[in-house]
Every structure is written in C-alpha cells, then in structure tokens.
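User: Could you go from structure to sequence for me? I need the amino acid at each position, not a summary. Structure tokens:
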C-alpha cells in the first residue's frame, strides 16, 4: 500500500521520481510522464511522403516542428523566437477581451438592474482576474517542475492531474485513477474548441442582425438569416487563409473600426442622457435591482461571456519577455477592462432602459437622416471588425483539429483537404446561427456553458492540484483552498443554472417557430 510521503520519506520519493523519469523509456509498460514521453520523431507517413517526393524539405521541417514536445522547448524556445514586452502583452490582453461581449453588457445589466448589475460586473472582473493569475502561476510552477519553458491550457491541466495522481494516494488507489492527465487535457481542449465555435456562431448572428438593420434603412427587407447565407461564401474563402500574418492588415483596420464605433456609441449615450431623453428620466424606465426569475442566470451567462480573455493568457505568458512581471500586466489590463465594462454596461442601460437589444448597436438610430447615416456606418464598421475577429478566432479550434486529421489522411493534397475541412466546419457553424438567429440566446449559452468553465471553474481546481502539497501552515492552506472551492461552487452554480435557462429559452424559441 502506497501512502502519502511524509517526513524523511519525501526525499526518497523525490529521488525515485527522478530515477523514474530517467529510465521511463526502458519499460514501455510503465507509467510515463506525459510531458516527457511526447515523441519527437517525424511521423512515418511524413517520412514516406518526403521520400516519395510528395512534400519538400521545408514542409517536412514544418511538420516536424509541429510534432515537437514541450520537453524539447530548449531546441525551439517560443520566448526566444517571438518575445513580447509587458506593454505589448497588456495591449493584446485588453484587445482579447474587447468583442461582442462588451456590446451585450447593457442588455446583461438590464436583467438585474443598474445598481446590482455594475456591482456584480466588478466582482466578476475581480474573480476573472484572480483566476487568470491562478492559471499563470500553475503554468509557471509546472514548467519549473517539468523543466520546460511553456505550457498551454490543456497541458497545464494534464501536468497538474498527472503530478497529483503520482504523489497523492488514498489507500491502494490513486485519487485520479480514472480521471488521468490525458482526460483532463482532452476535457480542457474540448471546452476550448466549443467556446471558439460558440464565439463564431455569435459573430455570424451579430453580422446578420447589424447588416439587416442597415439594409432595412436602405429599403431592403431581408431576414438576418439571409444575410448570414450571403456572408457565408465570403467567410469560407477567407477561412482558407492559413497564415495569420496575412490577416494582420485587416485586423489593424478592424481595431480602428472598433475604436471609432465605441466612440460613436458613447457619444449617443451621453447625448441621450445630456438632453434628458434617456430611459433613466422616464417613470419606471429603469430598475435598480432585479433578482427574480431568470434574471441572475441570464446576467451570469452574458457577463462571463464578455470576460473572454482567459484563452489568450497563457499564449501571452508563454511569449512574455519578462514572465515574472506578467501578473502585474494581468491586474492592470483586467482593471482597465472591468472599469470599461462597468461604465459601458451601466450607461448603456440608463440610456435605453429595458428596450435595450442584445447588442447595443441595434439601438442606434435607424432613420434616414444624416445623423443616423453615421450610426449605420458604425454598424457596418462593427460588422467588418467582427468578420475579421471570426477569422482569427477560427484558427484556435483548427490548431487542435487539423494536425490529427492530417496524420490520419496523410499530407498528400494537404491544402485541398484542409480547405474542404474548414469549409465544412464554417458551414456547420453558420447553419447553427441560421437555426437559432437570436444573439442574446447564443451569448448566454456560450457564456454559461463554456466561458464559465474556462474562466472560473478550471483555474481554482488546477491551483488545488498543483499547490496542495506546499509547505505552508495548515491554516494558510485551508484559507486559499476554501477560497478556491468557493469560486468553483459559484462557477458550477452559474454554469448549471445559466446553461439550463439558455437551453430552455432556445427550445422555447424553436417551438415558437
């Protein structure tokens, strides 16, 4: 019976771990450290294709790099290849959180009131920031343990569960006998993929709704579903671009469009409030606090969707020139984001009241006067920016799905195979948006189901797995463990209730059609 090592047995167990890592290749039936057992050799199919002339030396090197393990990061160090400064990391972090979620925050605040809504946004911002820091610290600690330079989200989960499985035992059974590191990594990656596809569905609906409003003002009465179908071929063609650098100029223009659009929206909000035409001046135009019915679950789903930057934290930390300063970058960046979210959500609700739409852009003036033409341009600007964002976000799931596809199908005619695969995935995503063209329902579902798991539930669990055996006073350890468990409980509650309410409303909508 193997028990938890204590006292003088701990150094002995540590020595055994070192020996085990050195000789793990001697017996293929022994448990292997997943971060050390990644094979580095080129897949046999690649070599055969190379020998037969199907791929050249450059492509062979590219595929070999894709198969490198993190234990070989000394050979290919991401920090050394493309390091980012703290300021650049701050800009990317802020940019990674600005999207359709920001435009939906006034709608989220309308569900719980202009007093409770901003207060809860501040709390959620603090929790989201704290969880980003937890994820970063777990990654840095595991990198040090496994003598590697970088880990992604899935690999952090894998390494955390594996280490916990190896050392933490109860009786003759491991605590994680079934839930192994491989399963943990798979779960995290699946949720990541689902989150990105959910984002893409939201982007399709957003573009369809806003283009419909512009077309309506020009005399074209078409449902948003038709505009999604019209946009689909264009999105498919651009999705075939496999080099993100080619999208850099488009992304730069998109960022400028977002800034211009936000400025125009804030001008309209202050204009309404300044001339006392806002909903806040009307009797019963706004509510202070609302917690009845589905208010809290819907708010939770929409609000947590807005804090969508958890996916960019580790990629930025992995490329940070000074990773020791990265937590400060996170606190500063999330402080700016939380402040912007709180002000924007509160003012947007005070301006438009309970008539606020799922995206505040849909509340902008829609007549044919010159003043409204500017707002129609804003809607087109946002549609263009979201179009580019969709293309960038689409790369994340493709990075997970395409390598195993190529390993199974071979590298011959690789470009054609990947283009067909991307076309199928984009078409399915657009199909979901056409079936459920309700922006508020999609945002609430994606936020409650996927974003809550990545942003709130997983990081505290990883903290417990990684740091549960540190040499801290018992009361100190119990404090942070209790705090982490509280965050997990709140996250699971929001996940369960938010997902249930969103699915119920989607089912009700489909029945009404």
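Assistant: Here is the amino acid at each position, in order:
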């Amino acid at each position: 019976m193997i028990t938890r090592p204590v006292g003088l047995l701990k150094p002995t167990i540590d020595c055994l771990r070192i020996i085990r890592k050195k000789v793990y290749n001697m017996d293929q039936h022994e448990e292997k450290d997943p971060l050390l057992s990644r094979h580095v050799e080129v897949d046999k199919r690649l070599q055969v294709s190379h020998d037969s002339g199907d791929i050249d030396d450059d492509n062979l090197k590219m595929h070999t790099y894709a198969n490198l393990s993190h234990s070989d990061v000394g050979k290919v160090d991401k920090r050394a290849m493309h390091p980012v400064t703290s300021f650049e990391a701050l800009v990317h972090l802020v940019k990674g959180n600005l999207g359709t979620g920001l435009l939906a925050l006034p709608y989220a605040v309308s569900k719980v009131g202009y007093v409770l809504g901003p207060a809860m946004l501040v709390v959620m911002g603090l929790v989201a920031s704290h969880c980003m820091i937890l994820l970063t610290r777990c990654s840095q600690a595991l990198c040090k343990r496994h003598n590697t330079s970088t880990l992604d989200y899935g690999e952090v989960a894998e390494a955390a569960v594996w280490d916990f499985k190896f050392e933490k035992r109860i009786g003759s059974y491991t605590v994680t006998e079934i839930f192994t590191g491989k399963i943990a990594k798979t779960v995290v990656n699946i949720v990541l993929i689902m989150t990105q596809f959910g984002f893409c569905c939201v982007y399709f609906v957003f573009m369809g709704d806003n283009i419909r409003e512009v077309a309506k003002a020009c005399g074209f009465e078409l449902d948003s579903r038709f505009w999604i179908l019209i946009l689909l071929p264009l999105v498919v063609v651009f999705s075939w671009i496999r080099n993100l650098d080619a999208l850099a100029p488009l992304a730069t223009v998109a960022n400028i469009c977002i800034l211009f659009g936000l400025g125009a929206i804030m001008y309209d909000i202050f204009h309404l409030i300044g001339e006392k035409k806002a909903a806040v001046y009307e009797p019963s135009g706004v509510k202070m606090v609302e917690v009845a019915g589905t208010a809290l679950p819907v708010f939770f789903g929409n609000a947590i969707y807005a804090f969508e930057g958890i996916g960019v934290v580790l990629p930025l930390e992995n490329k940070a020139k000074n990773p020791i300063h990265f937590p400060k970058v996170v606190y500063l960046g999330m402080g700016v984001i939380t402040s912007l979210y709180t002000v924007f959500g509160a003012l947007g609700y005070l301006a438009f009241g309970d008539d606020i739409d799922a995206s505040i852009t849909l509340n902008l003036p829609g007549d044919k006067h010159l003043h409204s033409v500017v707002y129609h341009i804003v809607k087109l600007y946002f549609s263009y920016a979201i179009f580019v964002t969709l293309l960038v976000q689409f790369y994340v799931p493709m990075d997970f799905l395409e390598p195993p596809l190529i390993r199974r199908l071979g590298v011959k005619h690789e470009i054609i195979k990947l283009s067909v695969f991307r076309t199928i995935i984009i078409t399915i995503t657009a199909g979901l948006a056409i079936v459920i063209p309700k922006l508020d329902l999609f945002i609430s579902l994606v936020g409650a189901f996927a974003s809550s798991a990545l942003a709130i539930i997983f990081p505290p669990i990883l903290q417990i797995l990684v740091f549960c055996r540190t040499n801290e006073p018992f009361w100190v350890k119990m404090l942070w463990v209790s705090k982490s468990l509280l965050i997990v409980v709140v996250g699971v509650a929001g996940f369960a209730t938010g997902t249930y309410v969103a699915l119920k409303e989607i089912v009700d909508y489909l029945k009404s059609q």
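One structural detail worth keeping in mind: The radius of gyration is 25 Å.
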